[in-house]
């Protein structure tokens, strides 16, 4: 019995010594044994066991340890909101556009006060698009599709870039339209418009700037911001041409015309070198009439004025009914 106990102790001691010896063995084969083979990767590319190497975009360390490189972005992340920039002394739109890698036109399209003129003064605040394109403030009548059409882009582009959860827009929402293209810029104002804006017409007209609104029609074929575009949203205009020729063109298309203002009629005048059109909103008991119009006090601005009989003189062409 005692002999068996001693034998058990001997066996346990032998096993312990064997395990200890195995743990102390350097299990890395010597380079003389592996020199002919080295480390073989998954693509069967042989690398040095001690020096490592590069296989494609994977770095291998000693004994085939894989070192994963850290990807570091080389460019700044894209900004999705506009920047408000304060004009410094001596700067013009060209210098500002160069600084922000956009064009002068894109800055002008993004600032309604710069549509009619590109002149800026020290201290002015200018809205800059974060990428080449246009920044717009949505109106109550705007939709993704209407903005996409107006600025010649895809509606999905507007949705994605602005990270919109819904295609429904709300008035006052500021949107960036990448690669958007606005309408043509107006020519320098005529002498009549300059006089009107400076108040040197003896108070002939009192214009009130309105906060909105466009009509329900798409105004297809008319450039945004002009008087013709605005009126074509209020009436379904099927003819074309500059504003001054609308009276004749509408008459030729079969529309009734005449000299008397009526609610819903289009007023045609020669108040600028291309002519001017406005929409008759009301006719008063004294014979005066109220019109809403665009591009009278400023480009892309909707305003309203009251006109008395005979006040326009020979500049009044007539009305389209």
For the residues shown, what is the average pLDDT? Answer: 81
Total number of domains: 2
DSSP helix fraction: 10-25%
Low-confidence stretches: 22-47
CATH level-3 fold name of the largest domain: endopeptidase fold (from Nostoc punctiforme)
The CATH architecture assignment of the largest domain turns out to be: Alpha-Beta Complex
Strand order of the largest sheet: 10-15-14-13-12-16-11
Number of strands: 16
**Strand-residue fraction?**
15-25%
Shape: elongated
Largest sheet: 7 strands, antiparallel
Radius of gyration: 38 Å
Which sequence of SSEs, written as H and E, runs from N to C? HHEEEEEEHHEEHHEHEHHEEEEEE
What is the CA-CA span between the terminal residues?
A: 128 Å
Alpha plus pi helix count: 9
- The CATH superfamily of the largest domain is identified as endopeptidase domain like (from Nostoc punctiforme)
Decide which structural class fits the backbone.
alpha+beta
CATH top level assignment of the largest domain? Alpha Beta
